[in-house]
Amino acid sequence: MILNETPIRTSKNYGINNIDIDDFSIPEIQETFEELNISGDVDEFTIKKEKNKIDLKYGNGEVLLKQIKNYSNVNFHIIVEGKKNKELQLEFDLTNKNQNLVDNILIEARENSNGIIIIKYLSSKNDKCYHNGLIKVLAQKKSNLNIIFVNMLNNKTENFTSIENILENDSKVKYNIIDFGGKNSITNYYTNLKGENSSNEVKTIYLGTSEQTLDLNYIVEVYGKNSIINMDVKGAIKDKSKKHFKGTIDFKKGSKKSKGNENEFCTILSDRAKSISLPMLLCTEEDVEGNHGTASRKT
Amino acid sequence: MKTKLDEINRNVYNIKNKDDYEYKIKKGLTPEIIKEISKQKNDPEWMKEFRLKALETYNKLEMPTWGPDLSMLNMDEIATYVRPKSKMTGNWDDVPEDIKNTFDKLGIPEAEKKSLAGVGAQYDSEVVYHSMKNELISQGVIYTDMETAVREYPDIVKAHFMKCVPLTDHKFVALHGAVWSGGSFVYVPKGIKVEIPLQSYFRLNSPESGQFEHTLIIVDEGASLHFIEGCSAPKYNKVNLHAGCVELYVKDNAYLRYSTIENWSKNMLNLNTKRAIVGKNAKIDWVSGSFGSKISMLYPMSILNGEGARTEYTGISFAGKGQNLDTGFKVIHNNKNTSSLINSKSISKNGGTATYRALVRINEVAKGSKCNVNCESLMLDDISRSDTIPVNDIKTDDVEFSHEAKIGKISDKSIFYLMSRGLSEEDAKGMIVRGFADPISKELPIEYAAEMNNLINLELERKYRIKKGMSK
Amino acid sequence: MSLLEIKDLYVNVEEKEILKGIDLKINKGEVHVIMGPNGSGKSTTANAILNNPAYKKIKGSILFDGADITNLKTDEIARKGIFMSFQLPEEIPGITVSNFLRFAKNKITGKPIKIFEFKNELKKHMEELGIKPEYSERYLNVGFSGGEKKKNEILQLLTLNPKLAILDETDSGLDVDSVNIVSKGIEMFKNKENAILIITHNTKILHALKVDYVHVLVNGKIVKTGTGSLAQEIEETGYKSFK
Questions:
Q1: How far apart are CA B372 and CA B401, in angstroms?
Q2: B403 and A280: CB-CB below 8 Å?
Q3: Fewest CB within 10 A of the end CB: N or C in chain A?
């Protein structure tokens, strides 16, 4: 199964245009998923259990998106309203009882709202599980959303995440991603800075251990004037783990005065660990500032 | 300092001689055509076999699935071999008048007198002139055309020819192997330091044809050399193809500097392959200025095989209207304590696309290696495009690797500062762009730095003329 | 006729109103100082005179030597004889101080200048300002320290010899010795035929110079104009009384 294609291809020999997951079959999904804990200021948010439409520009490939469409066993439409600065936490525990999670979460931050949403995936028992999830964020004008995404799944579990954010004028979406788990942990992250003065910040920490493969494909398209993207990805890999980081900032026509920063730092802790990175800057607009930096170093 | 744009004359590059050849092969690519080229060139048997094998490889390989769109290239429309009406000579006076005039206007014989230790000049598919100072000949330095090398040094050629760049590398390398013609061969014996540069100049005059020169340079242990390559062509309406191949062997403790100023005409597809294998404590420096061509796919590569081997790459590309310059650098760290320093700049304007596409690979064995990449792109307007696509593949923990890239426009503050000193906006921008290119000009011999500045001025002039025209 | 006359000038920066009706007259032979707290519009005034495109004139006009220069391009204004010493001079790689100044001088005077003459004059000014000779062959401001950049601005002032010198925070970030050298340079420049407009938020540099007028700029308006003693007053009491 080929996933996480980069928006622009480069030589096939470099092995980074996409990731090919072999030795993998799509599992059967139970109809319900029960080990789900919702906490925090639950009453301050509107939470509807409804299936959301799947219309992504990128996402984790047709097969997995189809699975979400047809077989999702957790569906939320979360509405954030008002400047209340409240916090909502969703915690999913994948165990033998609830082996497979396919979740479809839509977060809608209404005009002038703010809030914090924490989404955690764990596997408290050491069972082989499966996660295929979608988080879609619609940030309306002047909304301000902080999302904390935690992946603490075990190293036997396949983990696929598709994230898409669409930002209107003057909105801000900030992500903190803690990406620790999964046998193959494949994240497709896409932000559309559609509105003027919109801002997306994503800070990721990853850790690769044993024979894990982490494939992070972060794509940010800047359309709105005066917008900001800050991408900061740091992590360590040890044992025989592999990390592929593909970060793209794409300044589209009209994104005047926008700024983009992309930083990646990888600490390699073992001789057999492998790090590939492809930090892309694409630009069709003159009046922008784009920077990226990548570094790898021994501790 | 050159500041007046009207001092520069683009016409020198555009001298179009009559397509007056001694022999031009039929267009297209078949085993018969390859055999005919081989016959015309008097190849030894092994070379004929090599060409045919290369054609087979060519037919098997796919077109690249990435990079610029090459669909306008139709090999059935390209004549791969054009022999000029001239025999190779060591005396400019023996070169036919129209060909000599072209090289005169490009300043080649003059540069030879002033600042070079040797010169080679290729016109279409064959080298028409080759000469080197006597003292280098007496030191055992060999500098000749590739055909002579195949005849006179078959063992060295066989041991190195398309070993650094194998036929299977990509489709256009295979094509090159099948139809190659011309190019230079250099051998610098152990310990010999060639202090003054050698230069080969490649000129493609014939329309709807290709140039496929092969450059093979061996700098033996402890020796050193500076080699300069220049290229240009007049502009035609139909596509011309350049698929040269440069193979460089820098043996232990040796040093090679390889400088290129490329100014192909804007109907040229420049699909060139350049690669160096670098020995223990040896070093190769690449200096590269890309100004011409419609499409370039050019990624010089250093393979650091010896312990402590080093490389530096300093490159600039300037993409204007209708141009897609996809360039960059590749380095493979294959031994302990190897190091690479990469400094790339690009300028895009007037609808041009400049792409920096690169690979840094640090293999498991390359402990204690260092790599530093710095990449800057300047956008001169909002109808152009600039992309940075660098792959960093790190397979060892004991490494210091860093990569920085910047994209942006000329700073308004800098323009204001210069204008406040009485400079017009055009002068101010020109000054800033030349400053941007300065780290590359500095690496070139002074005449070539001046040529590069001229090319930058020409490109800028074209932009502003168009801009002014629009505002009327 | 005044050398410079600013009439009822309103200027916006990024849609924000910074100058709210400035009037100012400077005659030949005079030294003027604009003082004011941070953000009061001092640098905006300087940039507006040179018509920096980032500063939008909403209303008002600027006359120089009797001609309207309000909407002239920056280089045209410079060629009329206005010079500005920058608070943060830009680094321009690829051109040496010497080549740059010769080029600029040709542009300003409109005629080619003899190289020998130019080199001698440059050398003389560099000595006077205590700038090491090798700096003339270094790229313009590249790798210069803050103080070196400011001295280099004064070197440009002396070389280009304008009718009006605007010195924007020329004293900020300088040690005592540098302040003295810069003051000396300004003193050398000054004569009966030219004028100086100094923009500053402190009074360090003013001790060494004879100042004719001090204008206090607060919140985009000149709230008080006085003689040199006004600067001293501000040194003691600050801007509080003007707000």
A1: 6
A2: no
A3: C
